[in-house]
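Batch 3, record 17
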Amino acid sequence: MKKILVLMLSLILVFSLVACSKDDGGSDGGLIKVGVINNDPNESGYRTANDAAMRSTFTKENGYDANFYNNNDAAQQIATAQQMIQDEVDYLLLSPASTTGWDQVLKDAKTAGIQVILFDRMLEADEDMYVAAVVSDMAAEGKTAVDWLASQGLSEYNIIHIQGHMGSDAQVGRTGALDEKVAAEASWSYVTQQTADWSEETARTIVQSVIDAGTPFNVIYAENNGMARGAVAALDANGITHGKGGDVIVMGFDSDKWAFESVLSGSWNYMGLCNPLQAEKVDKIIKDLEKGTKPAQKIIYSDEPGFNCDTLTQADVDKFGT
Amino acid sequence: MSPSVKTPEAKTKKPEDSFFKRLIRQQLFIPIAALLLLVVFNLIADPSFFTISLKENSLGNPVLSGNIISVLDNASELVILAIGMTLVTAASGGQDISVGATMAIAGSVILRMVCGGQITSDTMQMNLFLAVLIGAVVAMLFGAFNGALVAYFKIQPMVATLIMFTAGRSIAAWINNNQLPIINDIAFKYAGTFLPGIPVPTPIFITVLVIFIFWLAMKRTNLGLYTQSVGINANSSRLNGLDPKLIKLMTYVILGACVAVAGFIRVSRSGSINYSRIAENIEMDAILAVALGGNALSGGKFNIYGSILGAYVIQFLTTTLYKYNVPSTALPAYKAVVVIALVVLSSPVVREKMSGLKKRPAKTAKEVS
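Prediction for the assembled complex:
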């Protein structure tokens, strides 16, 4: 038993060494060496699509020697970024888990002559510190959603607000727009405002507890689709109608195909698109930079409309669903 | 085994002198007191907390709804895990911190089976019972892996299970090729929501069934006795003809089965899975439930019913905090305060103080049993 284990462990060790040496030797042969730092692909459907797109774009066939790292912990991301800088990657692609704490990484990259491109999420830094940012404008997404909600003309807005991971770019932007509106309008109020940390299960529990408390509500504003789904599960369990013509307006965000279908079928009212597919744009920027062309704009926002159950078409679902 | 049963000896004592003291020494005193405290608090603060109403869900089924139902329903996974965790704790003197990750694995396997490898599926591609069985076998294998590390390689349980704690969720994602599968078949959701025509959430029935199975196992088999004796002294159990390694391994496999049931309930609540969020931190609640139940985390004597009560206390607390709109970011802090209070209260030193400073060689119920 023990011998087998020792054998297995040493085999694993040998394999991992082989894997490492392969990576090190790969930078030759005209490949562009990139380091990709992203969040955990299992966090949500959005991230899964985002990560998959990055991995399928930055391939050997496409002329890249890419190293991927996924973690939701900014400290781990920073440590890995520094490692990648030491490995002298040509480009560092970043989707920071937090908006702050990246100054030293950006400085080191600049000193080493490594170009930094942000994708998906912003961070707080001077514009000189990166070549380009292909990101979602979370505040605009929030504003589009809140404007749509306002256009529904309800006499009273009693909102269950389910927030994402506190401090993330997506949460800050989407919460900001709603907070502003609720503060400004007398007929808008929160029944509850809780973070479910992107968790469907927690979202369900939060909505169930509001229902148990007997407080009336007519809007669920969930900051991603998974949480909206959890909220809807609670509504269904209590026989509360939702969606088109229902008692409760259900709103979600991101780009999951199943969520699009929920809006299309009228089970949900609204989904704010958050486009996870920045990989192609980033790829184009790098290819241009290699030819010597700098991107025309520093910050490139994805076009992110909101879709509602009255106007969504199957064509949109096929075009934007992931 | 059950300390709440009055021993014949107790009757001979002067009741007015010893009742309170004996009460405090009961292993189940802390969880029951905590539960009563929460009930009383809610009764005073807002009696409507206990309202239960009969509604009709969106499928037209009659369903019961209310805070108490929510507590019983949402505690299901935790209760089932706490039972398995109690056995593991008792036998190996340590805890399995990988239960949340293994739940993700079990859930992932079950979903993969019923979705037939597709991302979304409107009907189940496999017999549900078979899918759950496969999920259970996988979870038990992972349990056996943990158990083998603990029993045969003598690795500290927390360190041994740290491996699956770290890797489990990635394995769960890998099982489904990093896709998030969704099953829309209503029959799949029966276990996590309601059976047609039955107004009580199905997880409550499953929990009762699991508790009943363990009650039977405790009554009819030597599982309890063996587990306990291995936990108290592995060497002397070995000299008495038991195989401590095998028994430790077995408790981890049993926990694996519990994990599979809990994972099944969790995925069937929504028909989907989010690998990094599903049952996040549930291992900590499960360990807490064991501790709240008055079980020594260093192993040995144990009381499954204490852990079950502990799990309900935790869920009751969570639901109460939600009810009073405590921000969910602040939940852990409130929980921590309560935990500190309960843990300190249940420490032998404080209990001794509480039951009076008189030195008396009174036997506690634990010793009697």
